[in-house]
Amino acid sequence: MSASASLNPPRSAHEVRRVIVSKVGWTACGLALLLVIAPLLDIVGVVTFNGLAAFSVNLFTKTTTGAANGLLNAMEGTLVITLFAMFIAVPIGIGAGIHLSEYGKNRLGSAIRFLSDVLTGTPSIVLGYFSFIVFIIGFGWGFSLTAAAITIAILIIPYLARISELALQQVPTSMREAAYALGGTDSTVVFKVVLPAASAGVITGTLLGLAISVGETAPLIYTAGWSDYVWDGRFTHAPVAYLTYVIWTFIDQPDPHSHALAYAAAFFVMLVVLAINIGVRLVVRRQKFE
Amino acid sequence: MIPAALVAVILFLVVYSGQAMIFNGLHFVTNINWNLGDLYSDPVTVNGISIPSGASYGILVFVVGTLATSGIAILIAVPLSVGAAICLAEAVPHRIRPVLSMLVELVAVVPSVVFGLWGIAVLIPIIGHYISPTGNGYGLLAASIVLALMITPIIASTLLDALMQVPKENRESAFALGATHFEVVSKAMMPMVRTTLIGGIVLALGRALGETMAVLMVSGGGINILPTSLFSPISTIASFIVSQLDSAQSDPTNMSVRTLAELALVLFLITLAVNAAAKLLTSGAFNVRKRQS
Q1: Which pTM does this prediction carry?
Q2: A154 FRET partner, CA 20 to 30 A, in A26, A265, A289, B84?
Q3: Mean pLDDT of B126-149
Q4: pLDDT at B184 over 80
Q5: Domains defined along chain B, listed by start
């Protein structure tokens, strides 16, 4: 340290080193951020570019034969699987959420919370394999819509329960007390007062569950199978097609036409998933600021 | 319903894989050979359990593959996500921070097949062309890079949350002592969020261990051989389960299906242990609230 008290003392070697280390550190951090975001933009770019290039009316009107033609069966299959999965998961998930938020402040509640976290952390392939041995082999249903829908439902129930619990907890206690004071029973209070007040959060959870079920692959391979035809209305013994299957099998085929189909499928899946997630985030953020 | 479903998953996997456990014994985890045996000759009976003749099931290769891909993925992902989180928390202007942090979070929601597709279309050619000595891009490195990309947002957003919650006083006192901005972050703020960071890393590890599709698509699917270099084809437990569907079904004694159930159980137990560790670390950590979604 120099003893002179000038306003701009020369920097010592130690200080210079500190400044350089800081500059290098910031550059490294900026680079890291860039490296995280760039692949996302590249993924979106590559999939959109190739997906749009593969765009044609046939995609929507024809079913897949071999590895060519359209995606009608896969789109319809994904839609049906998702709908039935939501049909099973939404009542159970929201019900569990209500239970956890309204009556969950005891040992049972924390046990359920812990188990649902475990279920969230379970690899989806393990759930898929479980469904395979229980529904396909055990019950003898064959690759089928029911097995697929139940598997996806098991996958998204913990998310739904957790998000609706959080939404319900944000409803102020005074609202519940007011409803009880007016003579409401437990069920009227929950269903007529608390649930409507928390509906935005519950719908958010449902939409995120929808996004997960559209994007899942691993559990479906073992439960839905694959079919070249549109779903024929049978719940068991009839394999169902789905979009994500197209992506991972057709990209390994040698001919460019199946690659085009894989990209088109990836484009649709990504469009749905990203649209839901961006939409939900924007709405949630706006609510926070208001 | 949730506990019931979970208990059912464990129960059915255990019951179903029971015979396989008896047949495979402890040898299961140290053997590197996976051989379905002769599926067309008459099954033979060993210890009262009927199996295809010559069958032997060893999962060491897949355990090693799973740990290797996840380990390397963590090595890549940690510096990336720490850098990204610091940058988001401290360096980025307030106006564009929500946009950038949303982009980072969106990386986490891209379906894993789409990552696999990108891996095949973009990453594999790059590795094959410029890095790999054999000219083949599929393998350990590709799988690790894709996994690293998928888990980065988990670590980054956990860390970002924690960094934003560091009390203002700590930052200001560090500045007052004459620290540069970077020193404030690295020497005053990072030590405070260390536990959370470790929790986030373990959480990400749990996700990486169970990741299936993306790894399956870029890993090259090597079996019966331990990886020797970054470019060796490998299989993880999860990807192997998927790739074995067809051959397992053609086994008349069902032994390979049962053994796969045992394998799924192994994977489940590994991820369970890792997630429990993550939960302990994050819940005991310094004022960190759980992320909503």
Answers
A1: 0.82
A2: A265
A3: 80
A4: yes
A5: 2-58+243-267 (no CATH), 63-238 (1.10.3720.10)
